[in-house]
């Protein structure tokens, strides 16, 4: 799901609540908009291996002056994670260890790629591809056995889609079939959704052809696993990439169908 | 197309024709069956960058004793391509130059991968994926504007499919749309088919998800380019991966549709 | 320096001291002998980027039952570094984050290399190369301006050699000259030795040619920096690689000199 | 050896000889000066794997209008090597095969590195390092068993040095010792010098530390193989990197020795 961080901030402000606003941006930084300062977030954490398209091994923490002050006041013992030490150059050099420089070189290239495509274009691409995924799941859900975890479109995530599977079925089998027969690796359900859902990741260096291939694999796996679903999910996903031609070029659109 | 090399050999034998039988196996070695000795081929050439899944830069020549004897008799001047020199170890070391060892390391790994999967399994995978491609094109061809270049299934190639496009349309635009909008690179028509066809490669390290994503991109491109086609090509391609369930598990099959 | 861990253990045992025995093996694991169990070490930490020949980014902790029990008793708040969580497979999977798998693949290969060469052979190689370094420094120290930090041979480290530089000179200039003119990166003095020493690393994937080239660069840098030293350090280092031929092959040895 | 290409050109011109001037620049392009146009060379061939610092697999041919005209007149049958075909873009695309693009990406980076360092600086570096090699060999030759193949300094090559070994000794053993004990790979003698010489390559991405390490390995190998030589070759090689300090900083130089 996509959290409305700005709205949470507003509520905190309205009730003058002193809590720090913490955001886990691991699966969203670089895929959807995030505004640390404008939304007055206090602490945001992210990682290299999701929309930043780098190998796992790096994480990032951004801290507001308010959070820093809270850390100063805290009496909790700390060393490696001590923000005060890490803000000082000498401390970092001498006591925070050897930096994983190869991962940093990779991140440097990833950031160059982000700048080359442009953040706005990247957000638009993620939105487009996420819409394709949701269009497919909406069709499949017509038979009542699977459904999008996000009930409201506005709350759906543009970086990963969780699909719930009816209680009569074992969601894990879908993952197995996709991986073993089609070389497609899906995520499993987490926590209470373990065995009850699968997740389709669509963030980072991902494009239409990849996601259509993924959706086709899922559609085939649903059939193979005997999980009821309306056919045509991939067709609906393809449809989302087509210009809404009817008005613009009626002749061409007719010809095309 | 797939040539019936064995049949050509039989005809040559029947008419006692002295011609050498030469086979260009560049786009087929490692994708479909090839039997140099059994089919009594005289010269076969292949390359690293197709079904052998390696960077371009290496080519391979296999030569029969009969072809070697013909080369001995030939008075044509030659040096680098002289098979006699290359058969001798000393000549190769001293006069054929520095071997491109990095490409050879890559080829070594590719051959390990081939042996790990097994040639029979590789041929079966190529046949399966080629069938998916042809199933999609058959559906698209229902509107009369595109068709498979291979008229007979038995002559179709399992490593690349050529799709002809009606004279009223420019096939090159399909390639442009696939590359620019969907990151999918198709081949163009060659020779007399330039601008009149596109080619979908499906050899080497390729799997169902990749080819379904590719077919979805082509189906979207046909719509975008206004080229008439029956919808449902990708569905037909997915169908080829499903077990023919009706007999085996009738209940499950019903549920799945 | 090389610490005599086993001796420390003996002393602790003799006086029945309850302290845990902690070993920082970052710069020694894989270069010299280390016996966690035999020496009854309680906690050892190591890292990937030294003698394990891998990119920086991984560290390793080995913990004795006694140390684990102490951690259980401790009331200090902890989460990421909590050994109890990390010992349990489920905790690790769910709450310790995404493993840096690319670094793990590299480590896998490094361990294969270690097993191929054999630990005994690796220790012998490090000892041999360290002797070459010390032989060179001993010669240079004849002029009184530089000296080995390790006074006793038995305490010298086989993975890195620290060379002290007389107060009249700036050790950092030696590092600068080596790096800028000879592409050789030395370490600087740490802590109280900052600016007063340089360090020559010789651990991991290092061989005689590399270390002789390094020593030649240092010898040239000493000249360029005007730091008094007896010439012939590299000769002495080369000498350590020669069989003590005089007895075995007296004739050949004579001929060779 | 370094050929005086310009002088050969002058002689050809003086005697009005019609021969084409062909230059094999494989081991020199990018290491020493070469001027195709100014020296009026007709054909030059080079390769990727020497001073151009790339994997083997690419070769380059530069052809003068005079050589092209000669090729036009020639009746010799040719196809792959036909310059006329390769000069035309369409011919290349359609009939000269798939370009080894990964090697071209590597070459692109190598050329960037060449431009970054600058050709003049690269030539100066090669000259400097070659001088170091020759200084070492000159010292070793004092015992009469080894000597530089190039009698005159002006004719010595700055990219590779050939060292002849007296008839009483087997030069190949030196290569074996260097490779097996010190991880240093020397070249062997070619043609009439097989077994009678070894070659030290010093072109491309090479620096002082590398070459000093190499020379130290050779000096150790000479001792191990019992080949008479004056000691101090590496010292002489180091000496070449030192400023001729006596005049400039007499005091410092004294201190340093």
Would you kindly provide a written description of the structure presented here, covering whatever features stand out?
The structure is a homotetramer of 257-residue chains. Helix content of chain A is 46%, strand content 11%. The first copy, chain A, is an alpha+beta fold. In chain A, a hairpin with an 8-residue loop joins strand 6 (187-188) and strand 7 (197-201).
Itemize the secondary structure elements and their pairings.
4 copies of one chain form a homotetramer.
Chain A: H1 5-14, E1 22-24, E2 43-47, E3 59-63, H2 65-73, H3 83-87, H4 89-95, H5 101-117, H6 119-140, E4 146-148, E5 160-165, H7 171-182, E6 187-188, E7 197-201, H8 208-224, H9 233-239, H10 245-248, H11 250-256
Parallel strand pairs in A: 1-2
Antiparallel strand pairs in A: 2-3, 4-5, 5-7, 6-7
Helix pairs in contact in A: 6-8, 6-9, 7-8, 8-9
Secondary structure tally, helices of chain A: 11
User: How many DSSP-defined strands of chain A?
Assistant: 7
Average per-residue pLDDT of chain A, rounded, comes to 92
Strand order of the largest sheet of chain A: 4-5-7-6
Radius of gyration of chain A: 22 Å
What is the beta-strand fraction of chain A?
Answer: 5-15%
> Major sheet of chain A, described briefly?
4 strands, antiparallel
| Chain pair with largest interface | C-D, 40 and 40 residues
Instruction: Assign a percent range to the helix content of chain A.
Output: 40-55%
Task: Supply the helix-strand structural class of chain A.
Answer: alpha+beta
Order of helices and strands of chain A: HEEEHHHHHEEHEEHHHH
Oligomer: homotetramer
Low-confidence segments of chain A, ≥5 residues, pLDDT <50?
A: 246-257
> Between the first and last Cα atoms of chain A, what is the distance in angstroms?
35 Å
Characterize the overall form of chain A. globular
